[in-house]
Design goal:
Blueprint lengths: L1 H23 L2 E6 L3 H14 L4 E6 L2 H14 L6 E4 L3 H5 L8 H8 L9 H7 L13 E13 H7 L7 H13 L3 E4 L5 H15 L3 H6 L8 H15 L12 H10 L3 E7 L22 E4 L14 E10 L7 H12 L1 H8 L4 E2 L12 H13 L4 E2 L5 H16 L4 H15 L3
Parallel strand pairs: 1-2, 1-3, 5-6, 8-10
Antiparallel strand pairs: 3-8, 4-6, 4-7, 4-8, 4-9
Helix pairs in contact: 2-14, 9-11, 9-16, 13-14, 16-17
Pfam family, one: SBP_bac_1
Subcellular location: Periplasm
Family: Belongs to the bacterial solute-binding protein 1 family.
């Protein structure tokens, strides 16, 4: 009898161990450039709500490490379950490796779930899809609004008012430079930051025209876009950008100098609020964002209005075809974009939500609450920031760099973008 009891106990222990092993085997693999410390908080919240699922996250710097890793994994059919994506060109590059999530999302959040996503995000979720393809291959996690941030303490010390005209912007840049600060820091070695400024400028002359141009519905050489390109060159010539901008990078160089109080202004976006939530020593110069505020680029010569809000999806996630075979992968993706894992990212002020109905909780200063509200008020009316086809954005990057360097005039540069667009669209 005693042997039977021991055997029974042994079998019971083996059963428990086997069950635990099976639970541990429910793993979700995720790759992204999303900040590790914030992602870990999201994973912890998810695993607390779903104790039988383990999430293994691999972080990469976006460029070139993440892009290189994705290409290699796609070529060998070894992509993880969930991958970080930007809408448009990056999503389309990997569309053949992604699984549509329409049905899963409808089951998770209801048939009208997409209506809860902010309009500019909804548009970007389908950007670049083949005609007639209404599938969603990306679920947005966070949104962003582009703007010009400024150091309030430096402005107050030097007696600089927030610029409301181009002349005031020039005067502010000169004052900053004269006093030993970098004026409006531009990481002009980074195509993405140049694109952002150009889209701000284009929106002053003709909101939405760049969308029509990249779709082949309007010429890149439209007078409004030529004016925007001339205004882009003037930012260099008028000393609004810092000297040496063409060789500078926004991250890490510009962002670090800005955080340290050595830069007066920098074109970034709503994500800058997260600086106050980074662990020391990264946050030592930014306490509750009290020293920072933002404005929109004032009207340049020839334009009638300041730059409209520009933005959309900051980061989203796709379910790979490998991940579609793993039911737990969607469970995590849903949590990360519209559940408990998302909430942790918002609490870290990582950026704005992509779905309506969310806001940060916890230790948030009154000043940050005000910044957040202003961004959220502007998000529903934001102009599109993204490009559907990589070749077009690359051509625009090259055009902006050439014009800034003075090697190509604005109209000729935009002719080159038009040629690249025609080729990409098969015209």
């Amino acid at each position: 009898m005693k042997k039977v009891l021991v055997l029974g106990a042994t079998l019971l222990s083996a059963s428990i161990l086997s069950t635990a092993a099976l639970a541990a085997d429910k793993e979700v693999t995720v790759w992204s450039w999303f900040i590790q410390s914030t992602m870990q908080k999201s994973i912890d919240a998810f695993q607390k709500a779903h104790p039988g699922i383990k999430v293994t996250y691999t972080y990469y710097n976006y460029s070139p490490e993440y892009i290189t890793a994705l290409k290699a994994a796609a070529a060998s059919d070894s992509l993880p379950d969930v991958i970080g994506l930007q809408p448009g060109s990056l999503t389309q590059q990997y569309r053949d490796h992604l699984s549509p999530v329409n049905e899963l999302a409808a089951k998770e959040w209801g048939a009208d779930w997409a209506e809860k996503v902010f309009p500019v995000n909804r548009k970007q979720m389908l950007m670049g899809n083949p005609a007639g393809d209404t599938n969603y291959y990306i679920i947005p996690q966070e949104s962003q609004v582009l703007c010009v941030w400024y150091n309030r303490k430096i402005f107050e010390t030097l007696g600089i008012a927030v610029p409301k005209t181009y002349d005031e912007l020039k005067a502010a840049a000169k004052k900053l430079s004269d006093e030993g600060y970098l004026p409006l820091f531009q990481g002009a070695a980074d195509g993405w930051q140049n694109e952002n400024i150009f889209l701000m400028l284009a929106g002053q002359f003709a909101p939405g025209l760049t969308d029509k141009a990249q779709a082949g519905e309007a010429p890149w050489t439209s007078p409004e876009l030529v004016s925007a390109m001339k205004a882009w060159k003037a930012l260099f010539d008028d000393g609004i950008f810092q000297k040496g901008a063409l060789g500078a990078h926004a991250y890490p160089t510009g962002a670090q100098l800005f955080a340290q109080g050595k830069v007066g202004m920098m074109a970034l976006g709503s994500w800058w609020m997260q600086e106050s939530k980074f662990p020391p020593p990264l946050s030592q110069y930014v306490q509750n964002m009290d020293g920072f505020d933002f404005f929109y680029l004032p009207a340049v010569p020839g334009a009638k209005t300041a730059s409209p809000p520009v933005g959309g999806v900051d980061i989203g996630y796709g379910l790979t075809k490998n991940g579609a075979k793993n039911p737990e992968a969607w469970t995590f993706l849903a949590s990360l974009t519209n559940g408990e894992a998302l909430q942790e990212a918002l609490n870290d002020l990582n950026d704005l939500p992509a779905f309506a109905g969310h806001e940060p909780k916890g230790d948030v200063s009154d000043h940050v609450k005000d910044l957040y509200k202003r961004f959220m008020d502007d998000l529903p009316k934001a102009e599109n920031q993204r490009f559907a086809i990589p070749a077009i954005s690359e051509a625009l990057d090259n055009a902006l760099a050439a014009v800034a360097a003075g090697s190509v005039d604005p109209e000729a540069a935009l002719n080159n973008v038009q040629a690249a667009t025609d080729k990409a669209l098969g015209k």
